[in-house]
Amino acid sequence: MLRLHCYSKQAVFDGKRAIRGGIPFVFPQFGQWAFGPQHGFARVARWHVEKLPERLPSGDVEAVFSLMDDDFTRSMWHFQFRLTYRLILREKELHFNIGVYNPSKELTFSCQLLLHTYFKVPDVRRCQITGMHGCMFIDKTREGTVYQETREVVTINEWTDRIYQNTMQEHIITNVVSGRKMRIQKYNFPDTVIWNPWADYAKEIPDFGDDEFPNMVCVEAGRVAAPIVLLPGTAFEASQILQVM
Ligand SMILES: O=P(O)(O)OC[C@H]1O[C@@H](O)[C@H](O)[C@@H](O)[C@@H]1O
Questions:
Q1: Tens digits of per-residue pLDDT, 144-189?
Q2: What CA–CA distance (Å, rounded) separates 164 from 152?
Q3: Distance (Å, rounded) from C-alpha 185 to C-alpha 84?
Q4: Whose CA is nearest to atom 4 of ligand 1?
Q5: CB 41, CB 72: distance < 8 Å
Q6: How many Cβ atoms are within 10 Å of 69's Cβ, its own excluded?
Q7: Structural domain boundaries in the chain
Q8: Which of 59, 85, 163, 182 is most exposed by smallest CB count within 10 Å?
Q9: In the predicted model, is pLDDT for residue 3 greater than 70?
Q10: Ligand 1 geometric centre to CA of 239 (Å)
Q11: pLDDT at 1 over 50
Q12: What is the pTM assigned to this prediction?
């Protein structure tokens, strides 16, 4: 089995803070948040297992998780909500189906949602990422200045922290694990964040090794530039498929 995802050697699995690696679930806030931790509470909350991993007649393996408001979430964000997260594992694919529901009878909420996927790569400088050509992006390394991407493929040779907007439904990343390509397909996720802390910023991240930045890249599908607005009783759905090519 190929190990696609990257976990820092210094990742802390104490159940208190977000794990440095894997696919942290960013909700209801992307980035810094006045009311709670950066990237929201979903990546540090305890999810409920709706369905333990089970092999379906097709051979796929399915598992379903959920997260609802409770005292912990309401201490930061007073809205009622229900998230469902359905994962399906196939031989070379992983499917992520997400639903956000607003069960309130009166209150509308707005939120951001993003899958903060860490890919393990032999050398990030050799990766090319398609699907951003012509897109506007917010460059968080340059005080949020907005630029347009002119390159057919994005390469990474420095500290990179960009929110690409209205990206293509598909990204291909080259030179991922064992030199293979990875396809990301996304539905209802208009934005793609590309992040690598590079050498200087890596030193400032306590749960990330100083020498680990060449071996990771985050390519994060989400809805962050324009928040999701959910009226009472309505739902939002989005999904992502990761496929080893
Ligand atoms: O250290 P965290 O909270 O996991 O965030 C890592 C990075 O996540 C990215 O999605 C953000 O765009 C970056 O600004 C941030 O530094």
A1: 999 999 999 999 999 999 999 999 999 999 999 888 999 999 999 9
A2: 14
A3: 19
A4: 20
A5: yes
A6: 18
A7: 25-225+237-244
A8: 59
A9: no
A10: 21
A11: no
A12: 0.96
Assess contact for 212 and 206: CB atoms under 8 A: no
Backbone angles phi, psi at 45, to 5 degrees: -80, 160
Hey, whose CA ends up nearest to atom 8 of ligand 1?
Answer: 195
Separation of CA 51 from chain center: 22
Tokens read off for 8: 């820092």
Q: How close is the Cα of 147 to the center of ligand 1, in Å?
A: 20
Q: 25-225+237-244, what's its fold?
A: Beta-galactosidase; Chain A, domain 5 (2.70.98)
**Could you tell me the pLDDT band of residue 9, with boundaries at 50, 70 and 90?**
confident
Across the chain, what does the average pLDDT equal? 95
Alpha-carbon distance 121 to 180, whole Å? Answer: 10
Alpha-helical runs (H) found in the chain: 71-74, 198-204
Give the Å distance between the CA of 39 and the centre of ligand 1: 8
Each residue's pLDDT tens digit, 187-202: 999 999 999 999 999 9
Ligand 1 pocket check: which of 26, 137, 161, 192 to mutate, most ligand atoms within 8 Å of Cβ?
161
